[in-house]
Structures are given as structure tokens and as C-alpha cells.
Amino acid sequence: MARASVGDRLRHVSRSIAAIEGYWSGKSLQDFEASEPLRAATERHLLIISEAVRHIPQEDKDRYPHIPWRDIAGIGNILRHGYDAVDPARIWAVVVADLQPLKAAVEDIASRPE
Known about the structure:
GO terms for molecular function: hydrolase activity; nucleotide binding; RNA nuclease activity. The chain is an all-alpha fold. The chain has one domain (6-111). The protein has 6 helices and no strands. The protein has helices at residues 6-24, 29-34, 36-53, 58-62, 69-81, 88-111. Helix 3 crosses helix 5 (69-81). It is globular, with a radius of gyration of 14 Å. The two termini are 22 Å apart. The model has no long low-confidence stretch (mean pLDDT 95).
């Protein structure tokens, strides 16, 4: 299997953010807590995002110091290893507050010539 390029990784992040947005647009924390299948799908997409951002070059990340790159990469470890203690309200906070700035940064990185 061929190794994914940085462009591929950026597309993975964008697709996962779009999927999460599609699940939760116009929804509330109560909706999130009530839907275990969509909550699990959201966590899966956050895992994808977490892994993909690990492969974005540091020089690209440095252009966006307001993005908590280390925290984004780290959420994957929490979801994998601390799955039994994941707080749905914290994941919801990521969905509503943290994905839009990441989306804008990823789109900007992707628009630059390689």
C-alpha cells in the first residue's frame, strides 16, 4: 500500500470534518449524547483527524500557531486508550468550537502549491 501524501492527509482531515459537520449541523449536546452510533462515528473521524495531522509538516503547522496541533494529535490517544473515560460534553465542545479553525487552516495549507 502506498504511503499517503501530505495532500492526501489534508483531504482526510477535510472529509472527516465534513462528515462530522453533516452529522451535527443544527444539533445540540443532548442530540449528541442520545445518538451512540453517530457519537461513535464522530469519534472515529476524530481519530482520523488526529492521525492525519501528525503527518502535516511542522513548517505548515507553524504558520497557524492558534491551532492546538499537539492537542489534536493527542485526542486520538485519549479516544484509543481512555475510551472508557471519554466525556461526551468534551467531545461535543471539540465539534462545535475546534473544527472550524482547523478546517480553515487545512484548507489554506492545501491551497498552497507543493
